[in-house]
Amino acid sequence: MCGFRYTIGGKDRDGQPMSSLSGLEIVKLMRRHKVTIEQLAFRLGTTQKRVRQIRDLGLSDVYAIRDWIQAISDLDVGPIPEKYRIHNRQEEGDCCFCGFPLFVGDTAFEYAGAMFCSIACSRKSREW
Question: From the centroid of its chain, how far is CA 115?
């Protein structure tokens, strides 16, 4: 899990910013789980300097975000949310976290068997 070369400022294929985790959110998670910079660097197999850099700049790659959250919390955070577009009325529903209605043509995220309106809602549903 070392060598996070492409974790800062990345873009997806459409040129849109990827889901991100800010440095402040990483700091809050580390404090909540009582993980030091030294412990996190050991768990990730990286340097303390790299951990400090990410605490300042944040992460923008979903795979790196998953690895860092798992290293901080010692919990399996589950699969990465799958993005899809709602094509028919049978797929319509509400976000399982905030209750936002999702209709035909909207983009939704499937995560752990539930439907969400955004990656942020799917994250918050698992308390990360």
Answer: 16
| 119 phi/psi in degrees, rounded to 5 | -65, -35
Average confidence (pLDDT) over 113-124 = 84
The confidence score (pLDDT) of residue 32 equals: 93
**Beta-strand runs (E) in the chain:** 82-85, 93-94, 101-102, 107-111, 114-116
End-to-end CA, the chain: 20
8 three-class SS: coil
Residues 6+ apart with CB under 8 A from 30: 36, 37, 40, 55, 72
**Structural tokens at position 6:** 């492409």
Q: Which residues pair with 17 in a beta bridge?
A: 11
CA–CA separation, 91 and 86 (whole Å)? 6
pTM of the predicted structure, to 2 decimals = 0.56
Q: Which two tokens stand for residue 27?
A: 């700091």
Cβ neighbour number for residue 46 with a 10 Å cutoff: 18
